[in-house]
């Protein structure tokens, strides 16, 4: 039944694209896809009719549903029939309000996923954020992951554009995989869009990230309100690269960053109980994204006598990289000068091991089997001005701990990931 559904959705999506011919911006990578998608959408929606994936609609079902403009029918046959009818209506009768651009996040859990998506939805602009050992259980080698992610640039024509993260050597290998024009972004000197002097800072009592944008010999200051860390800065750079390629004025694009809101669960800054701050990064986790999150915690300024606390859950689907990946994160936690490390879930014992081996005091490291135990423990240890990072894989459900620590848990449905009925 699933194969039949895939075929129907692919056929309908292909016919809709052929009829309306929207410009397609595809985004893939091991980390940072959703933040990049949201940043691009924020910068384009003031100038164009744009649609982007909702939720995690980045696979064989979610991408065609985005093209159709519908939510999933889940297990309800009547809802699926309604979706098919809506698609047929779009094909038969022209909808003048159909978007002129689609911003599509494309995910890959196994070999062949990206090729399937770009065969269905060829891109005009492709963005690659980063490549690392995510879903390693299914890909087995890093080379397989690079090849799979590279499918998003391999199919591009010479008139198209590939936007690559210059800080990631695995991404830069894709320069030889495409005929398209290449634009780069990152922190390296030869980046087309370069960020420098990145700081977590306060502006008019709002915490955020400031940086200097260097492009074509010009240096322009940028402040991202309530946005933390270099991953979000890189998302902003990729969005600027897209906007400039579409002839939008640079200063107008920078002003439009005021519309950019970090998606729930991606280094989102929330108010915590006892006048604390929470860095909610609970959407998903991998060694590379965990290290980036720990860098944010390391760099953020503490007020008063506050302390830095990291609550780290398991990282899943790492296959043979599981033990080493968790130990690397533990070592990074030790190097980040945090005050307390709390690990949750069986696999996170290797985070504990990595932190101890790197020299972190056992008195500052705590392990719990469940989120409930960890949440109760940390509530009793929090003090004013503490800053708490919470991170883990989807299956670790670390947002449950965030909810326990939020100053306004009644806003959980609005601010946290996985708050719908099917996740409860």
Provide a descriptive summary of the structure in words:
- By secondary structure, the protein is α/β, with parallel strands linked by helices.
- It has two domains: 202 residues, UDP-N-acetylmuramoyl-L-alanine:D-glutamate ligase, CATH 3.40.1190.10; 156 residues, Protein-Tyrosine Phosphatase, Chain A, CATH 3.90.190.20.
- It has a nine-stranded mixed sheet, sandwiched between helices. The protein has a six-stranded mixed sheet with strand order 10-11-15-12-13-14, sandwiched between helices.
- Helix 8 links the parallel strand 5 and strand 6.
- The longest helix is centred in the N-terminal third of the chain and has 19 residues.
- It is globular, with a radius of gyration of 21 Å.
- The two termini are 26 Å apart.
In short:
The protein is of the alpha/beta class and 424 residues long.
Largest sheet: 9 strands, mixed
- Helices, by number, come to 16
Spatial sequence of strands, sheet with the most strands: 2-3-1-4-5-6-7-8-9
Looking at how many chains there are and whether they match, the oligomeric state comes to single chain
Please, what is the CATH homologous superfamily of the largest domain? Answer: Mur-like, catalytic domain
Structural class: alpha/beta
Strand content: 15-25%
Chain-averaged pLDDT: 94
Distance between the ends: 26 Å
Unreliable stretches (pLDDT < 50, length at least 5) are none
Radius of gyration from CA coordinates: 21 Å
């Amino acid at each position: 039944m699933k194969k039949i559904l895939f075929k129907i959705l692919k056929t309908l999506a292909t016919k809709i694209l052929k009829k309306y011919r929207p410009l397609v911006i595809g985004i893939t990578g091991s980390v940072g896809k959703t933040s990049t998608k949201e940043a691009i959408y924020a910068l384009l929606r003031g100038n164009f009719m744009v649609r982007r994936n909702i939720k995690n609609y980045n696979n064989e079902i979610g991408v065609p549903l985005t093209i159709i403009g519908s939510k999933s029918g889940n297990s309800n046959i009547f809802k699926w029939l309604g979706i098919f009818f809506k698609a047929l209506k779009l094909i038969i009768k022209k909808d003048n309000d159909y978007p002129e651009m689609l911003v599509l996040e494309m995910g890959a859990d196994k070999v062949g996923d990206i090729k399937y998506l770009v065969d269905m939805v060829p891109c005009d602009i492709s963005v690659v954020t980063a490549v690392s050992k995510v879903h390693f259980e299914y890909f087995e080698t890093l080379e397989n992951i690079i090849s799979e992610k590279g499918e998003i640039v391999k199919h591009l024509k010479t008139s198209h554009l590939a936007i690559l993260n210059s800080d990631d050597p695995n991404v830069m290998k894709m320069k030889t995989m495409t005929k398209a024009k290449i634009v780069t972004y990152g922190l390296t000197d030869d980046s087309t869009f370069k960020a420098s002097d990145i700081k977590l800072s306060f502006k008019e009592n709002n915490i955020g990230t400031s940086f200097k944008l260097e492009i074509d010999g010009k240096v322009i200051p940028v402040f991202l309100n309530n946005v933390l860390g270099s991953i979000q800065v890189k998302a902003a750079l990729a969005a600027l690269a897209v906007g400039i390629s579409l002839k939008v004025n640079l200063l107008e694009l920078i002003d439009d960053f005021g519309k950019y809101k970090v998606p729930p669960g991606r280094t989102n800054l929330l108010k915590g109980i006892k006048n604390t701050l929470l860095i909610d990064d609970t959407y998903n986790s991998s060694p590379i994204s965990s290290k980036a999150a720990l860098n944010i915690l390391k760099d953020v300024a503490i007020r008063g006598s506050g302390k830095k606390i990291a609550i780290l859950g398991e990282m899943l689907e790492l296959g043979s990289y599981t033990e080493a990946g968790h130990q690397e994160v533990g070592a990074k936690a030790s190097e980040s000068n945090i005050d307390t490390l709390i690990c949750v879930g069986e696999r996170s014992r290797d985070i504990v091991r990595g932190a101890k081996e790197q020299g972190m005091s056992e008195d500052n490291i705590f392990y719990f089997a469940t989120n409930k135990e960890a949440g109760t423990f940390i509530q009793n240890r929090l003090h004013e001005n503490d800053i708490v990072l919470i991170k883990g894989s989807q299956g670790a459900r670390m947002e449950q701990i965030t909810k326990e620590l939020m100053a306004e848990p009644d806003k959980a449905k609005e601010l946290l990931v996985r708050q719908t009925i099917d996740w409860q």
